[in-house]
Write a structure and sequence with these properties.
By secondary structure, the chain is mainly α.
Length: 175
């Protein structure tokens, strides 16, 4: 039994050393540094100046800002993507997915290339799902528009139809 617990404790130590190795590289941030970082960001201090004040690299400061949900001055987070004039069809998207699958079967791919192909495949699948939802919505929208036109025509024909004369007025002679 003692031997079993020693094995468990060795496994725990090994696990803890792995856990430590994947933690951040630099010096941990203190609560005071985080508060100072927040104040400097709110004061619209440029990222480079914040990093210098805190004695950190600009990259470390940026990562900490991102983790805290802050957007420092001098760092644009907006990404401009060229938008296609027409949405690619499901067939075009499936061709890209098939191309990524074909490329992934090639021997000797680097880890980066495999990860890139995984991203392409994931994006293609997500696009296909979103596009099919979009097409379904467009179909429902078209049917709704058609029904609105028919309803308007029905109301129009009802308003233009001759009005029935009430029975009492028809029986009474004009005076």
């Amino acid at each position: 039994m003692l031997f079993e617990s020693q094995k468990y404790s060795k496994a725990t130590v090994a696990f803890q050393s792995v856990e430590v190795s994947i933690m951040t590289k630099g010096t941990p941030w203190t609560v005071e540094e985080e508060l100072q970082l927040k104040k400097l960001v709110q004061a619209k201090t440029p990222l480079s100046a914040i990093a210098a004040t805190l004695g950190r690299t600009a990259q470390a400061t940026l990562v900490k800002c991102q983790r805290l949900g802050l957007e420092p001055l001098g760092h644009e987070t907006t990404l401009t993507l060229p938008l296609p004039a027409e949405l690619p069809s499901v067939e075009e998207t499936l061709k890209k997915l098939a191309g990524a699958l074909e490329a992934a079967t090639a021997p000797g791919l680097s880890k980066v290339e495999v990860e890139r192909l995984q991203v392409v495949a994931t994006l293609a699948r997500a696009y296909k799902d979103i596009l099919s939802d979009y097409l379904n919505y467009r179909e429902v929208e078209a049917k709704l528009n058609d029904m609105e036109v028919k309803y308007a025509a029905l109301l129009e024909s009802k308003n233009n139809a001759p009005q029935p004369v009430p029975a009492e007025m028809a029986k009474t002679p004009a005076q």
